[in-house]
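Annex B. Sample input.
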Amino acid sequence: MSKYIEKNKYLVELGNQIREVRNSKGWTQETLADKAGVTTSYIGEIERGERNVTVLTLIKIAKQLECDAATFLKNIPKDI
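Annex B, continued. Sample output.
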């Protein structure tokens, strides 16, 4: 089984929101990855909706972006 999951609209939306906040700070994926202690490719996979990020990683990313994880989840559709 591949380490990648099939893209779905929830992960894509989550990734878009992370990218938007990262870009608003003028940071590259590499900058965010370094600050959050993950790889640049992992940040890219999250932002493209290719990874189902763990709660702990989402919290690390949110902390570095100076917000909380709920910020990224509040606009996720609730139609699951």
